[in-house]
Design a protein that fits this description.
The complex is a heterodimer of chains A (about 160) and B (about 325).
Chain A (H helix, E strand, L loop, with lengths): L1 H40 L4 H9 L3 H16 L11 H38 L4 H30 L4
Chain B lengths: L6 H11 L5 H9 L3 H10 L8 H19 L11 H17 L15 H9 L8 H17 L2 H22 L3 H25 L3 H7 L8 H9 L2 H8 L5 H9 L1 H16 L10 H25 L4 H7 L6
Helix pairs in contact in B: 4-15, 5-6, 5-7, 5-8, 7-8, 8-9, 9-11, 9-14, 11-12, 12-13, 13-14, 15-16
The chains are: A mainly alpha (about 160), B mainly alpha (about 325).
């Protein structure tokens, strides 16, 4: 049963990187399409729309971070990988906020980014305001990241 | 991903919307001293001067359709905008066959099918070569034209068939905006026809033949209302989503006609903020068509030395 613990923990790490990564790739791809459309019409908008395109990419990075921390905590990157089933389950659950919120928020952020790109095309001088709308979605990805990180670090000291 | 299509196309359309003519610019055109001054102003906006006004407007229309062809691989959802031209060609082909005098200049090349194919099918009475939706009304209109020589009856059959085709295509497109376009086109045409029938004293039979059914209007109720006169139509409209039209109809016929023309453009406006889907593209096509119609009215008004006020009365509301 000790082996099952590490399997569950690893599954959590993989899901955090995988699901959030999928969300980000869809999101960056989608806002990239809109950015390409904007630059076709006005090449001077490149730097502005590039920032908007990249915003939904952060969830993938957060997922990677959670995956990486989990791997170091469960001994996959070195050290002992003797994880109890209870601990493995806890690591798995700790990774879920980042996986699920990361995926969903990347997609929603991409929608907001595409809309913001439309705004920048029409009013390039309003770039600052346009960036705030998709950036607001980032809050929830960061909250999920925080809760996942705090949980992962907390699990190590639990007597289970 | 569903609901997130056409991000590239819509971003490009957002850029193109910046070059659409605004209400203020149209005011400038109306205030210009001559049609030559109007053309100079239009050239500053990127319009290309051609041999004559119609060629210039045609070039602008072609520019719009070329852009849409570049952005969308499947153009079939936009056929809904072109059916009217197909039915116009069908009418012309039937009348051409009746009069037995070729009139190639009256045919439009903006339809979904080649005008020559329609002419050939009608000439040889091979209606099966036409698209399925057109076959029955084409045969009926042809028969009526040949038996009675009454062009108006032929027009009624084909105008109704065109409206039904637009409504059906809108519904089948799966796009809410195109569905709304189909519905609104039929509803506006039905209301206009009911009002005109009151003014010209046409009876119930005419309306029963001419009005196309749609979801937002009850055909029977509209015909009953038309029999009671203009006020009857106003009272009926107040019970429908077109209640603001009743007020305009009470004001004057020209105010009402203008309301009908502006009805569509007002429903288009929310698409300026929609970042995905076919709808913003469809709205752009209609906005450009509206722009071209308005410029045609202004140029022709200027050429015929109409007063600024009477040109302004006829010009439609703009999308931007």
């Amino acid at each position: 049963m000790g082996n099952l613990g590490v399997v569950l923990a690893l599954l959590g790490a993989v899901l955090a990187a995988l699901v959030a990564g999928i969300g980000s790739s869809v999101g960056v791809g989608m806002s990239g399409e809109a950015a390409a459309g904007a630059v076709t019409e006005d090449p001077s908008l490149f730097s502005k729309v590039l920032i908007l395109q990249l915003l939904p990419g952060t969830q993938g990075i957060y997922g990677l971070l959670i995956g990486f921390i989990t791997l170091t905590q469960i001994g996959i990157m070195g050290g002992s990988s003797d994880i109890s089933l209870a601990k493995g389950t806890l690591y798995f659950l700790a990774c879920l906020p980042m996986a699920i919120v990361g995926y969903k928020s990347a997609i929603r952020q991409a929608r907001a980014s595409v809309a913001a790109i439309g705004l920048v095309v029409k009013r390039p001088d309003q770039f600052g305001k346009a960036m705030i709308f998709p950036a607001m979605v980032e809050t929830y990805a960061i909250l999920a990241l925080l809760i996942s990180i705090l949980s992962i670090f907390g699990i190590a000291s639990l007597p289970v | 991903m569903a609901g997130m299509e056409y991000a590239y196309a819509v971003a490009r359309i957002r850029g193109k919307e910046l070059t659409l003519l605004t209400g203020d610019f149209l005011e400038q055109l109306i205030g210009a001293a001559s049609s030559e001054d109007c053309i100079r102003l239009l050239k500053e906006k990127g319009w290309k001067e051609e041999a004559d006004d119609e060629a210039m407007l045609e070039a602008e229309r072609e520019k719009t359709w070329n852009l849409i062809r570049e952005l969308v691989s499947d153009m079939s959802p936009f056929d809904v905008f072109l059916y009217v031209n197909d039915y116009h060609n069908l009418k012309a082909a039937i009348k051409e066959a009746y009069l037995q005098t070729p009139r190639p200049e009256v045919f439009s090349d903006q339809g979904t099918i080649e005008a020559d194919n329609i002419r050939k099918a009608v000439k040889n009475r091979k209606f099966g070569e036409l698209p399925k939706e057109m076959q029955e009304p084409a045969e009926r209109a042809y028969r009526v034209m040949m038996q009675t020589g009454n062009g108006q009856l032929c027009d009624i059959i084909l105008d109704r068939a065109a409206l039904e085709a637009v409504e059906k295509a809108g519904k089948e497109s799966g796009d809410d905006f195109l569905k709304m376009y189909g519905e609104l086109t039929v509803a506006a045409a039905d209301i206009k026809m009911a009002v005109r029938s009151v003014r010209t004293g046409k009876g119930r039979k005419f309306l029963e033949d001419a009005l196309a059914p749609c979801e937002t209007l009850d055909k029977e109720e509209l015909i009953d209302a038309a029999e009671k006169g203009t006020e009857g139509i106003c009272l009926y409209l107040e019970k429908t989503p077109y209640s603001d039209g009743a007020e305009e109809l009470r004001r004057s016929i020209s105010a009402f006609e203008r309301w009908c023309d502006n009805l569509m453009i007002r429903r288009l406006k929310p698409q300026r903020y929609n970042p995905f889907g076919l709808s913003p593209l469809a709205a752009y096509i209609l906005a450009r068509e509206n722009e071209i119609k308005s410029v045609r009215i202004i140029l022709s008004g200027k050429r015929h030395q109409l007063s600024q006020e009477s040109i302004r009365e006829r010009v439609r509301e703009m999308y931007v």
